[in-house]
Amino acid sequence: MIPISHPFKSDHRMKLPALAFVAAALGLSVGAVQAQTPTASKKPAATHKAPAKKAHAKKTVTKKGVPAKTAKAVETNTPVESLSSRLTDGELAIAKTIQTGTIPCELGAHVTVTADEKNPGFFYVSSGKQRYYMHPVESRTGAVRMEDNRAGALWLQLGNKSMLMNQKLGQRVADACVSPAQQAVAAQLESHPQPALFDAPKP
Known about the structure:
Elements: H1 7-36, H2 68-77, H3 89-95, E1 101-104, E2 110-115, E3 123-127, E4 130-137, E5 144-148, E6 153-157, E7 162-166, E8 171-177, H4 180-191
Antiparallel strand pairs: 1-2, 2-3, 3-4, 4-5, 5-6, 6-7, 7-8
């Protein structure tokens, strides 16, 4: 008896290897396609940086709160009044008679008088640790005198001697200060004393 093969079964057996072959072929082609397709590289997330703050240039400000550039521009366009211009013609004339240098005084003290070259009519006066900045002042008595209004100091120059006083403290800083020119005057007064005011004129 010849066995009769079932058509469905034989077809099913034939299809299985074909399907496996197709699947294998498809698997290879898909793998090849996947291998040839470049994978998109992941870009790092962009980090948002805060915009850098611009450094503001520091403005130089004067003590009065005015920018230095503005103050300098004003000074260049505005003439600054000198100290000498504050003195009167009479005070400037007195300044020419001020005796300068280191002047010896009694009790071993010394007073140094130095003219301020930048401000004619003004003088530096020092004795020991005391320092003053003086200018001449017109006097009714005709005596040559200089003052430092801030320190309350007075320099009184007579014909035969000078003295330095601190009126604020109420004391004499140096007394009987005699310069070479005053020594000559003092010697002349000794040899030719001037009559007193109440001396009667001789007949």
